[in-house]
Write a structure and sequence with these properties.
Blueprint: H1 2-24, E1 31-42, E2 45-48, E3 61-64, E4 72-79, E5 84-87, E6 99-105, E7 109-110, E8 113-114, E9 147-162, E10 166-181, E11 189-203, E12 207-226, E13 229-239, E14 248-257, E15 263-271, E16 283-294, E17 300-311, E18 314-328, E19 332-343, E20 353-366, E21 372-381, H2 395-400, E22 402-413, E23 418-428, E24 433-444, E25 451-461, E26 465-477, E27 482-494, E28 503-517, E29 521-532, E30 535-547
Antiparallel strand pairs: 1-2, 1-6, 2-5, 3-4, 3-6, 4-5, 7-8, 9-10, 9-30, 10-11, 11-12, 12-13, 13-14, 14-15, 15-16, 16-17, 17-18, 18-19, 19-20, 20-21, 21-22, 22-23, 23-24, 24-25, 25-26, 26-27, 27-28, 28-29, 29-30
Length: 548
C-alpha cells in the first residue's frame, strides 16, 4: 500500500496547488454546460449531436447520464461542425439517446455564439505601386511558423462499494495530448496522445491488486493535403483519418485530393490490440477508400472504403464501409454509416456471402423558434472474427444475434427561460424487446439567478431489469465556479429474481464543482453516493487540465 499512499499524497498536493492557483488568479471565468445526446455507440466511443458550431472543441469534458447507472465521463476526441466523437475509460455502458452535458469555458462563447480568437497576422503593408486586386501569395511550408497546441491533464477517481463485502477501487491518470504544426518545415503536424495510469483494487477475502501502466493512443506525423501539395501522408500510430471506422493503426495512410475536392487513398499497417494499454498488435490491415464531396464547405459527402485484415497470417475480415453526411444551413443535418462483412467457405459460423453487420442513421432538424427534432436508427450484428473481441461472442450470438434500435428526440423552448426535452427509443434483439423514454423540464434564471433547475421522469425496459425513476438537478454559477447537484430515485424490477431482490428502490446523489481560471486552466471536483436496496457505494474524483 506504500505506492497508493504516495499517489494519494501527490493527488492531495495537486488539489492544493490547484486551489492556490484559483485564489491567486485575478481573472474570473465560468463554465457553461451544453446539452448533448448520444446518436451512435461503438464500444467505448460514442457520437454526439453537437459539434464545433454548438461550441464544443477537442479536449472538452462531457458528462453522460445513462439511466440507472453511474455517470460516464468522456472526452471529445474528434469533431465536425455538427457532431463530436467522445471516448471514455471504464465500464460505462451507453445507448443511443443517452443525455448529458459538455463543459465549455464561458470565455469561448460571446453572446451565445463562438468567439473568434484574436488575429495573429498583423496588417500587411500597402504598396502604392501594386494594383488593389493584386494576387495574394500564400506562405510556403518552410515560411510557416511552428505552433504547439495541446493539453495536459491529470485525473483521479476513488470508488468504495459496501454490498456483500467491502470493495475499493482507485484509478489515477495523467496524460499529454499535443499537436506541433509544421515540425520539419514541410507543413503538416507531429501529434502525440499518451498517458500513464495507476489503479488498485481491494476486495474482501481476495487481497489487494495494483498496477501502473502506460498507454499510447497516438504518435504520428503527417504532411501535405494543402494547396500545392494535394497528397496527404501520415505515418505512425493514429486513428485513420478518412475512415475512422477502420480504427487505430500502426502504419501509414496516403490520401490524394482531386481538383474538385474528392479524395481517394489507401492505408496499411498493424492493428493494436483491443486492451487497456493498446498493446502492439500482430493483425495486418490493408484498406482503400474514395470520398465524393459537394461544395467547397463539403456540406454533403459520401464515401466508400474497404478493409482486409489477417490474423496470425491467416485471412480474417473482409469489410466494406459506406458513410456520408448532408447539411443544409443550420436547419438540417443527416449522417449515416453502414458496415458490410463478406464471408467465404473458411468461416465456420456465418454463411458464405455478404451481411450487413452495422448500420447507423441520424437526422436532426432545427426550427427558427429554437425547437429541435431528431430521428435515429441503428442495427448491429456480431461479425465472425479470428481476432479477439471484447466481450467474446458465442456461436449462438454470431448466428442469430442482432440488436435494432429506433428513436425520436426533441426539445422546445416554451418560454425564454423554460425548455422541454423528450426522447423515446425502442429496441429489439433475437430474444426480447424493450425501450426507454425521458421527459425533462429545465428552468433557467427562475428560482435563482445565474443557474437552472431541472426535473426528469424516465423509464427503461431492459433485457433483465426495468426501471422507472425521477431525476432532479440544480446548477448555480458563482464567482468562484459552477456548482451542480443531482438527485435520482428509481425503482428496479428484476426479471428472474424472487423475494426481496425482485423489486429494488435505489437512489443516487451527485455533486460537482467546475471552474476555469486564467486562459488555459480548468478544474473539476465530483462526488456521488448511491444508496438503497442492494446498493451502497461512494465515489469521489477530480479532473485538472491545462490547455496550451
Amino acid at each position: 500500500m506504500d505506492s497508493v499512499n504516495a499517489i494519494m499524497t501527490t493527488l492531495r498536493a495537486s488539489i492544493a496547488c490547484s486551489a492556490l492557483a484559483v485564489v491567486a488568479t485575478a481573472q474570473e471565468s465560468d463554465f457553461i454546460r451544453i446539452a448533448v445526446h448520444v446518436t451512435a455507440v461503438q464500444d467505448t466511443r460514442a457520437y454526439l449531436d453537437v459539434g464545433s458550431d454548438g461550441g464544443l472543441a477537442l479536449g472538452d469534458r462531457v458528462e453522460l447520464h445513462p439511466d440507472g447507472q453511474p455517470m460516464v465521463e468522456a472526452l471529445v476526441r474528434g469533431i465536425t461542425r455538427n457532431t463530436a466523437r467522445v471516448e471514455w475509460h471504464g465500464a460505462g455502458v451507453l445507448a443511443i439517446g443517452t443525455s448529458g452535458e459538455a463543459l465549455v469555458p464561458a470565455s469561448r462563447s460571446v453572446g451565445g455564439a463562438l468567439g473568434h480568437p484574436p488575429w495573429t497576422q498583423g496588417p500587411e503593408k500597402f504598396d502604392p505601386n501594386q494594383p488593389l486586386l493584386a494576387p495574394v501569395r500564400g506562405l510556403d511550408n518552410w515560411e510557416r511558423e511552428r505552433d504547439l497546441r495541446g493539453r495536459w491533464f491529470t485525473q483521479a477517481d476513488w470508488t468504495s462499494i459496501d454490498v456483500n463485502g467491502s470493495q475499493d477501487y482507485f484509478l489515477a491518470r495523467s496524460g499529454l495530448d499535443f499537436s506541433l504544426e509544421n515540425p520539419f518545415g514541410q507543413g503538416g503536424a507531429l501529434e502525440f496522445d499518451g498517458e500513464i495510469f495507476h489503479r488498485t483494487q481491494s476486495l474482501l477475502d481476495a487481497g489487494d491488486e495494483s498496477e501502473t501502466r502506460g498507454r499510447l493512443d497516438q504518435l504520428s506525423t503527417w504532411w501535405g493535403g494543402v494547396r500545392g501539395s494535394e497528397r496527404r501522408t501520415e505515418v505512425g500510430r493514429f486513428l485513420q483519418h478518412e475512415f475512422p471506422e477502420f480504427g487505430v493503426i500502426d502504419g501509414a495512410e496516403m490520401t490524394w485530393r482531386t481538383d474538385g475536392g474528392d479524395r481517394f487513398g489507401a492505408s496499411a499497417g498493424l492493428l493494436p490490440e483491443i486492451d487497456d494499454v493498446r498493446s502492439h498488435g500482430e493483425d495486418l490491415a490493408l484498406s482503400a477508400f474514395y470520398r465524393h464531396v459537394v461544395g467547397e464547405d463539403e456540406h454533403a459527402a459520401i464515401g466508400v472504403g474497404v478493409q482486409k485484415t489477417w490474423h496470425g497470417g491467416s485471412s480474417d475480415r473482409d469489410l466494406a464501409v459506406i458513410n456520408g453526411h448532408w447539411r443544409s444551413g443550420s436547419r438540417w443535418s443527416l449522417y449515416g454509416s453502414t458496415w458490410i462483412d463478406f464471408y467465404d467457405s473458411e468461416d465456420t459460423t456465418k454463411s458464405a456471402g455478404a451481411e450487413l453487420t452495422q448500420a447507423i442513421a441520424s437526422v436532426n432538424y432545427r426550427l427558427d423558434s429554437g425547437a429541435t427534432l431528431g430521428l435515429h436508427a441503428s442495427q448491429f450484428r456480431w461479425p465472425e472474427l479470428a481476432r479477439d473481441e471484447i466481450p467474446p461472442a458465442t456461436a449462438a450470438t454470431l448466428s442469430d444475434g442482432a440488436v435494432t434500435r429506433v428513436g425520436v428526440s426533441g426539445s422546445k423552448p416554451v418560454t425564454q427561460k423554460w425548455r422541454i426535452y423528450g426522447r423515446v427509443d425502442r429496441w429489439d434483439d433475437q430474444d426480447d424487446e424493450g425501450g426507454n423514454f425521458e421527459v425533462r423540464n429545465t428552468l433557467r434564471d427562475t428560482l435563482f439567478q445565474r443557474g437552472d433547475v431541472s426535473a426528469s421522469v424516465f423509464a427503461t425496459q431492459g433485457k433483465f431489469t426495468d426501471l422507472a425513476g425521477l431525476r432532479l438537478g440544480a446548477m448555480r454559477q458563482f464567482d468562484a465556479g459552477n456548482l451542480r447537484v443531482d438527485y435520482e430515485i428509481a425503482q428496479a424490477e428484476q426479471s428472474g429474481f424472487n423475494g426481496s431482490q425482485s423489486t429494488l428502490l435505489q437512489q443516487a446523489l451527485r455533486a460537482s464543482f467546475d471552474l476555469a481560471f486564467g486562459s488555459s486552466w480548468s478544474f473539476s471536483l465530483s462526488g456521488e453516493s448511491r444508496f438503497g436496496d442492494q446498493q451502497d457505494s461512494l465515489y469521489a474524483g477530480f479532473f485538472l487540465q491545462r490547455r496550451f
